[in-house]
C-alpha cells in the first residue's frame, strides 16, 4: 500500500531531521581513475614493498584496489586485482584479496604502471571506520581544497519538507543548500561526487561518521571563486 503523504514526510524527517544547527558534513569527492609509474628502484622485491612518493594512499586507505596493466613485479599477474596493504609514509604492500595478508616478496622488481581501480562508491551503508572496506575510499577520494574544513550542512525547518508527484508517484523532498567557497585563491578544484555524512567530523580525512546520501555532481570551482549547489533528497512511496 502506498505511503500517505504525511508518512513520506515523516520518514524523510526521520532520516534527515530538521536542523538549523548542523545536520552533517559534506565531502567533495573525485573518484576519477588514476595511475602512476614505478621503476625497479621503487620496488623491494625481497620484502614485497613499494616505495613511491606520489602514490597518494593513506593509512586509512588500505584496501584500495590496484592493477598492473602492462608489466608487474615478478610473480604478479597483469590486469589482476590486488589490494593495497600496510601503508606507511611513501611505502606500501599489496595483497591478493581485500584485507588479506600482504604478499611477502616478488621474484623480480620490475618496471611498469600501477592503476588505481574504480572504487565501489555506491556502498554507503557501512561505517567509514570498517577496516579495509570500500567505504574507506570515500575519504581517500576526498578533495582537501586549500586545506579547508569539510562543508557543514543543515536541513531547513519542518516546513521545508514538501511533497512532489512525478508520473503519479508521490515523493517527499527536502533541498540542501551547499555553498562552496574557494575565494581564498590557490588552485581551482574539480569534483564528481558529493557525500553527506552524519555524526562525522569537519576535519578532512577523518573516518568517523555514517554515509547517508551521495550525489553524482560533476562540478568545478575556479581559484578565487565561490558558488552554491542545491542538492535534493527524496523519499518515494
Question: Short summary of the structure?
Answer:
The protein has two helices and 16 strands. The protein is mostly beta strands.
Notes on the structure:
The protein is mainly β and 237 residues long. It has 2 domains: 5-31 and 140-236, no CATH class; 34-118. It is built from 2 helices and 16 strands. The strands form 4 sheets. It has a 7-stranded antiparallel sheet with strand order 2-8-5-6-7-4-3, with no helix packed on it. Strands 9-1-13-14 form a 4-stranded antiparallel sheet, with no helix packed on it. Strands 10-11-16 form a 3-stranded antiparallel sheet, covered by helices on one side. A hairpin with a 2-residue loop joins strand 10 (162-166) and strand 11.
When the domains are counted, the total is 2
β content, as a range? 35-45%
Low-pLDDT residue intervals, each spanning 5 or more residues: 118-127, 129-135
Q: Largest sheet at a glance?
A: 7 strands, antiparallel
Order of helices and strands: HEEEEEEEEHEEEEEEEE
> Can you list the strand order of the major beta sheet?
2-8-5-6-7-4-3
Overall body shape? elongated
Determine Rg (CA atoms, Å): 21 Å
| DSSP helix fraction | under 10%
Give the strand tally: 16
Q: Given the structure, what is the number of helices?
A: 2
Overall pLDDT, averaged? 75
> How does the helix and strand content classify structurally?
mainly beta
